[in-house]
Amino acid sequence: MVSASLVPVYLHLISLTLVGWGLGRTLPSVVPLVLGKFLFWVGIPIGIFAFLRQATLSFSLWLAPVVACTSIVLGGSLGWFYLRWRSGQVGDRCLSVTKGSFLLSSMVGNTGYIGYPVSLALFGQDYFSWAMFFDLGSTVGAYGLGAAMASRFGIERENQPSIAREMLLNPALWGMAAGLVMRPVRFPAPLEQGLVGIGWFTISLALVLIGMRLSQISSIKGIRLAIASIGIKMLVVPLVVGLLLLACGVSGLVHRVLLLQMAMPPAFATLILAEAYELDKTLTVTSLTIGSLGLLFTLPIWLWLFPINLPN
Questions:
Q1: CATH architecture of structural domain 2-303
Q2: pLDDT for 90
Q3: Which helix (H) or strand (E) holds 111?
Q4: How far is CA 275 from CA 101, 268, 281, in A?
Q5: Distance from the Cα of residue 281 to its chain's centroid
Q6: How many helices (H) and strands (E) does the chain have?
Q7: Domains of the chain: which residue ranges?
Q8: How many whole angstroms separate alpha carbon 56 and alpha carbon 53?
């Protein structure tokens, strides 16, 4: 059951990422920058708007951002304890900027560009609202606690981004708000189908963009630290919070959506924060690379531990 359900997901993820990798090696370096801005300001908000109109909403959706923030806090806490333990080892201390990058990679996941397509491919549009509200909590955590953490360990700069401004101007949040407000409005069938088509096309472009960005990575360093942060982010946190959710009565497909969102690799937002606060960008890039590739191996583990064919 697990292997069969993953075949179309893997074909989608790997093929589009490889296309992006090839394009990234041949096209000018400005192309992924333009594509990234297009997806951030236009594509992703339209996709959220379109899929939100098709998704099933309920009052219990408040749980998704709470779980997202809980996983971020837990990842940061575990990362902090790991660094404290590591600093106690003889001759094994990290620079402050390296600590900041390590903590960010342990906390913030790629719940948008990777989490969305995985959730849609495995669970369909009916449960997309859970992934989207989880991403809402992840965004707040990234530019809230994540930015505060980056500021704590980063180099002081006068042009550091305003946390409130970054959150208020996030177009994904505006797309979500518009989708919620416009849900009662009935659109003509061609327009509705067109919006959904744009949403799926945007998801595909997001995977292509990931491949293009990965193709621009020239070297990776600090593999030991990167693997530790990935272990916290993609293995320990999902297992602990996932079991806690089951103990609290959250099961079925809702549990699987939340679990896989927690198990996503580090977000590209960690690189944005690392550049803004002058953290260890090399470690951040290494974590992004290992985490993105590692998802191919960790995804079947979670589907095996928590089968998706259980009733909700």
A1: Up-down Bundle (1.20)
A2: 44
A3: none
A4: 10, 11, 7
A5: 18
A6: 16, 0
A7: 2-303
A8: 8
